[in-house]
Amino acid sequence: MYIEGVGEVEVIRKRISRMYIHVGRGRHVFVTAPRTCSEDLIRRFLTEKKDWILATLEKTPEAVEYEYTDGEEHILLGKKVTLHVAGGASNACTLNGRDVMITVRSSRTSVRKIYEEWSRDMLRRIVVMYIKKWAETMGVFPGDITIRKMKGRWGSCNVKTGELCFALDLITKDGACIEGVVVHELNHLLEKGHTRRFHDLMAHWVPDYKERQKILSRSPREFI
User: Fold this and answer.
1) Is residue 18 a part of any domain in this protein?
2) Which residues touch 61 (CB under 8 Å, ≥6 apart)?
3) Does residue 94 fall inside a structural domain?
4) How many domains does the chain have?
5) Own/partner pairs for 78-81, CB < 8 Å, 24+ apart?
């Protein structure tokens, strides 16, 4: 859908009751709308929110295309790291200060895949740590945890099953931002929607949660 002054906006329809706008990697704008919503209603909604969209686009970094080559810089846990790729007896990835040491068994091995799986395992450990920290405090009982690539969202919560899903790209953010997303999703087990009560609870658990949310979009996204 084309919106004057904004450009192309991708429309995603889901079983939801409200519309949401997301600005993703490469300044890509998309709106999630109820399945029964008409195109005219979606267009009016986007037009009304045009100032917010443009302001958000200005703060959103350009897309970065990574090659996963020796010497390339990436963002890990909010800090710059450098990849060091070399041949080895096995496929492995380790962190040494600001250096990510990657060994590959053959030239056909995907460095990207090794780094991605290593990042997924690291993020899972961090997420589990924060869930253990907060679940008891908040009095909630989360279910299974999934880490996957997500285009515009940082996490999701199935309030029926307690299953939590987190965006792999969170591994590029610092610990405070990851913690904020974990608390956000756990908070949905207490309040389903983004209601006044939801935000009051968030302010109780994490007083600076709004600041943490702003930081989330400041660095380029890698895994979507």
Assistant:
1) yes
2) 218, 219, 220
3) no
4) 2
5) 78/172, 78/173, 78/174, 78/175, 78/177, 78/219, 79/174
Mean per-residue pLDDT of the chain: 92
Whether residues 133 and 37 fall in one domain = no
Residue 37: pLDDT over 70: yes
Number of other residues whose CB lies within 10 A of the CB of residue 60: 19
Three-state SS for 87? strand
Residue 33 lies in a domain: yes
The model's pTM is 0.77
Please give the residue range of the domain that contains residue 42.
2-59
Domain boundary among 24, 44, 59: 59
How distant is the alpha carbon of residue 93 from its chain centre?
22
Would you state the structure tokens that stand for residue 85, as one six-digit string?
């790729």
Structure tokens at 107: 């030239």
Digit-coded pLDDT (tens) for 107-162: 888 999 999 999 999 999 999 999 999 999 999 999 999 999 987 689 999 999 99
